[in-house]
Amino acid sequence: MDIYQIWTTYNKKWSKYEILAFSVLLLLTVIVVAGCVCRKKINTMQAMAVVMMVIFLGIVFGSTVFTRTSTVRQYELVPFWSWKAIFKYKDWELLKENLLNCILLLPAGALLPIIANHKVKWYRALLFGVLVSAVIETSQLVFMRGLFEWDDMIHNGLGCMIGSMIINFFMKNKIRD
């Protein structure tokens, strides 16, 4: 599948309830960060990064959980099963899927140092990515909207960590106001 096919396959039209729920969440986020900026708890760049993170995670959850069609409950509990299949069967489509899973949370990792207003340690970014992915995978399992697998959590976590490390490399120790 190319990127366009992935986008159109996994990003179906949102229902009215999904749009309403996301709009309310986004509005609350904007109100809270605006209040934090006014009280000088965070700077404008941090506030924009928080709003971008909420928008990004809304899109990710929409495409990986909420807009998918319900199927049967599916799970793969063997860690690194996908890599074994790639090497054993030369499954290049699975390799592409693994790489796309690494890329999926890379933008979230890139936003973490901006939100924190300082460099983020690699293991914290990895933990954040694994936790976000664990919520996605658990939601897929509970709502029967995809395959629950440890490999996705590992790849998503690595992507988040890489995104954070890239921004850490380019930023000074602390972002100036």
From TrEMBL:
<dbReference type="InterPro" id="IPR053150">
    <property type="entry name" value="Teicoplanin_resist-assoc"/>
</dbReference>
<protein>
    <submittedName>
        <fullName>VanZ family protein</fullName>
    </submittedName>
</protein>
<feature type="transmembrane region" description="Helical">
    <location>
        <begin position="19"/>
        <end position="37"/>
    </location>
</feature>
<feature type="transmembrane region" description="Helical">
    <location>
        <begin position="49"/>
        <end position="67"/>
    </location>
</feature>
<feature type="domain" description="VanZ-like">
    <location>
        <begin position="48"/>
        <end position="170"/>
    </location>
</feature>
<feature type="transmembrane region" description="Helical">
    <location>
        <begin position="125"/>
        <end position="147"/>
    </location>
</feature>
<keyword id="KW-0812">Transmembrane</keyword>
<feature type="transmembrane region" description="Helical">
    <location>
        <begin position="153"/>
        <end position="171"/>
    </location>
</feature>
<dbReference type="InterPro" id="IPR006976">
    <property type="entry name" value="VanZ-like"/>
</dbReference>
<keyword id="KW-1133">Transmembrane helix</keyword>
<dbReference type="Pfam" id="PF04892">
    <property type="entry name" value="VanZ"/>
</dbReference>
<keyword id="KW-0472">Membrane</keyword>
